[in-house]
Amino acid sequence: MSKSLRHNGCDTLMLGFDHELRRRGFAGNSCQIVLELSEKIDPAKLEQRLAKLVRENPILQSRPARGLRQRWKPTKTMARVRVHADAKILEELFNESLDIHRGELIRFDIVGHKLIFTWTHALMDAKSAEYFLALAGDEQLPAPEAGQDWYTERAKLAGNFRARIRHAWQSLERMDEFKRALPISLGTKRPPAAKKMKYKIAAFSPEDSALIRKNSARLCGFLGETNFHLAAALLELHRLHQRAGCETASYIVPIPVSLRPKGARAPLFSNQITMILQQFFPNQLETVGQIVPAIKTQRAESLRDGYLDATIAMGHLIRALPLRLYMWMVKHELRGEICSLFFGDTSTVDPALEKFSGADIKTFAHVPAITAPPGIGIVFYLFRNQLNFTLVHAEGTLSENEADEFVRNLRQRLLNP
């Protein structure tokens, strides 16, 4: 990499979350994909494959530059492959920091038949991570162009810099609307004492997954799975708040929107997403059938009123701000809150992930990072037509019993809305 590469707006946001998590004593904004394989793999072979990928993609040997211009700068740090004998180490690995300021952007850990791929979210989004993992396990796969451009055809903004300022101002006006009913998250009501994140994975059988898709089609229409998953998660979040005695005037949830054309994988090392904030009130959260129209209405209004362009424009502008100032602005808008729940739905796992280094992939799990507050997040994903979700929470924000109950209730809600 002969020169530094600029971050796009969402890269900068993810780096800001990393800074905020580390400031609060957590491991940082690092995500994981956990594979259970049919057999053990050769770590030396994986190291050789990674060395080749690093040569082909120099951004993998870089670090976030300090200063006002948010960009990647070259380093000589190599990605690590580590082997562990103790299966109990899995949760520890999730809470182990990547040393991103020395250039450690990715890491592989092998624990028996499990492979844990960890990456800093500032480097790439979950869909990119899926395909990069496939590349690491199969040298025959074609590598997409490793561009660093924020834009796709869907995301280009018309007009000059002044027009972008107007778009970004629209995003701030939207936040003013949210302030009329400020959220209070569980992470604020119960600040985590321990600086650890915990997670639970729920997997559905093919038969139950088919039933959930039928429920989704009945309540949300064709291709409405994400809305159905969000509605069920919101209902259970509201009931969790009620049980915990955490009263809130509203719930605010960032909804990720992909900026890649359908089926595109490039640019690989980039966060090609933006987020549209949606606000829900307690009196809208009585049933899944009641929540779905509120989700659809807000999404339609966001697209109609240009809020998607507004969030993209804001992403361009924040690259010129110091991270500390930007994160202060994010929290200041909602008086210390960022949101009520981090929600993601990555849809179908990349079909290139059928095998890894010759071994069959038996199970697949996304494990995202979240900030505290809110201290709770959930991501849905579909692997071989089987629906899965992962609940992540800060230790202390939810007890083990509450986390188990949330997962159990959400499973039942999806099956019997």
Question: What is this structure, in a nutshell?
Answer:
The chain is an alpha+beta fold and 417 residues long. Helix content is 38%, strand content 22%.
List the helices and strands and how they pair.
Blueprint: E1 5-6, H1 9-23, E2 30-37, H2 43-56, E3 62-64, E4 71-74, E5 80-84, H3 90-94, E6 106-111, E7 114-120, H4 126-137, H5 161-178, H6 186-189, E8 197-203, H7 206-220, H8 225-244, E9 251-258, E10 273-280, H9 288-304, H10 307-318, H11 323-333, E11 342-348, E12 355-356, E13 359-367, E14 376-383, E15 386-394, H12 400-415
Parallel strand pairs: 5-6, 11-14
Antiparallel strand pairs: 1-4, 2-7, 2-13, 3-4, 6-7, 8-15, 9-10, 12-13, 14-15
Helix pairs in contact: 1-10, 1-11, 5-10, 7-8, 8-9, 8-12
